[in-house]
Amino acid sequence: NLEVRFPIRKKKLFSSEVSYLRAVDDVSFDIRRGETVGLVGESGSGKTTVGRAILRAIDPTAGDVIFHTREHDIYLDELEGEELRRFRKKMGMVFSEGPHSIANMASDILRSFRPRMSLVFQDPYSSLNPRMTVRDIIAEPLVASGMMKNRDKIDQRVRDIASRCKLNLEHLRRFPHAFSGGQRQRICIARALVTRPDFVVCDESVSALDVSIQAEIVNLLKDLQEEMGVAFLFIAHDLSVVAQMSHRVAVMYVGKFVEYAPTESLFYKPRHPYTHALLSAIPTIDPDESFDPIRLEGEIPNPLAAPSGCRFHTRCPYATEQCASEIPTWQEIAPEHFVACHRVDEFDFSRDKQSADTT
Ligand code: SF4
């Protein structure tokens, strides 16, 4: 039941008014060891906020973020004040005060959740400090958190992860500007994995790259997952990239999850009209593989004025009066397949069904 609200202050002539933007509203899901969960949705749907709230880079307003370990469960959302400061110290967390660049933010987060949680940002250009060598960038989470102190051991660990990420070891003394976007993203991945974390948030980590480079990075992440057993939350707006990478996929719309299912079920048997609309927008070569197109009218609503009832009702071609007034329940309609839609029992958008109907 994760919830994140941001206060928005509107200035009036003699006063100010605060309203709240519900960026994430009552979202529940789990990620298993060694699994990739894909998170898709249009810009402004709340995907990035979910990732950052899990890492405690943003404070959740309500709900629990639970990190299960062999010994005990850590309720990341419940740590406050002195307790949070102690936990951060124990985990080697240091957050900079005040506004800071993406490169500093990347450093903060990577130090903070060592050795268990980490993050790969979208932009491999702004998330690397231009004044540090590749070796120092990759070694930073080990050094800043105090996880390793011996220089030889640090070098050994850096060389190991750099070669796993298929970086040329001769290049470790160079600075980031000497590298292409794909190579820079490999450096970011090496930095995120150098502490051998259990869980990494990849926030649009391939979106800024050319298609051929995207495929290389996706394959690299899959190889690293197999070798190291790391779990990923893979945030992206491109469903076809998510399909290649994920075991399960969640679809978000204006701060809420609308569907969550194993990848094959979601891609072949979607049950929510919004998921169907997203899938029907992906071009395919084989006509049997395509969905009947749905054209969505209008824009994604402003989260500050989110629609009542089902948030998708203003654009859904199947909306009824009930949809405008009642929030649909989040229900499991098949093993591990969750949907929030009042009319889910009436829909069958599966590809087989559509091909049969067409025939
Ligand atoms: Fe469409 Fe209604 Fe289902 Fe929402 S609840 S997706 S508006 S049919």
From TrEMBL:
Classification via SUPFAM superfamilies: P-loop containing nucleoside triphosphate hydrolases
Membrane topology annotation: Peripheral membrane protein
Residue ranges annotated for the ABC transporter domain, each copy included: 8-279
A Gene Ontology molecular function term of the record: ATP binding
Chief place of localization: membrane
Protein family according to the UniProt entry: Belongs to the ABC transporter superfamily.
Protein name as it appears in the record: Peptide/nickel transport system ATP-binding protein
Native source organism of the sequence: Cohaesibacter marisflavi
